[in-house]
Amino acid sequence: MKYVKSWKLFHELVKANALKQGRFLGLDVGDKYVGVAVSDPENRIASPLSVLVRNKTNIDLVATDFQSLISELSVVAFVVGYPFDRQRKTPNAIQVKLFIDELSKTGKLKGFKYTYWNECQTSKNVELLLRPLNLHPVQSKTMVDKFAAVGILQGYLDNVNRKMRSETAK
After folding, report:
1. Strand partners, 34
2. Angle, to 10 degrees, between the axis of helix 6-15 and the axis of helix 137-169?
3. What is the spatial order of strands in the sheet that 75-82 belongs to?
4. Cα gap 130→38, rounded to integer Å
5. What is the CATH number of the domain that holds 35?
6. Of 22, 26, 28, 152, which is least packed with CB atoms within 10 Å of its CB?
7. Does residue 119 belong to any structural domain of this protein?
8. Residue 93 pLDDT more than 90?
9. What pTM, to 2 d.p., does this model score?
């Protein structure tokens, strides 16, 4: 897997005409689950997709699941939520980096591109929205993970599409 800065990733895919045939997957990486969201074919709107169970022994299975999603949905890149904190490396940030490193080591996503996007408060925002529904804790957790992935991916899509519009307006 290859890291590419957020704007550069989008710009490269536009230049290669890859966005006409492909979508993005948004990932919210947690200690037990990975929330997954997918963009629409025009890469404007993010929607919840699924939650993958994550543990130390199933990274190969998770990589295989991603291979399937890439193939089925014509995915061109991942947008991975990352808790940016300029003061220090948080445990969540280290966890995200380790997950990406483990995925890369499987070799199943060789050459696949990803970028990081600030996930600041995405999970907290979803938790606040879901609180009045009084859901079962497991159901609530999986919904939080899925919709946090939507927030991450939508934030990225909004930003890069806004930049594209302003570049073409020049």
Report:
1. 29, 52
2. 60
3. 2-3, 113-118, 75-82, 23-29, 33-39, 46-53
4. 21
5. 3.30.420.140
6. 22
7. yes
8. no
9. 0.88
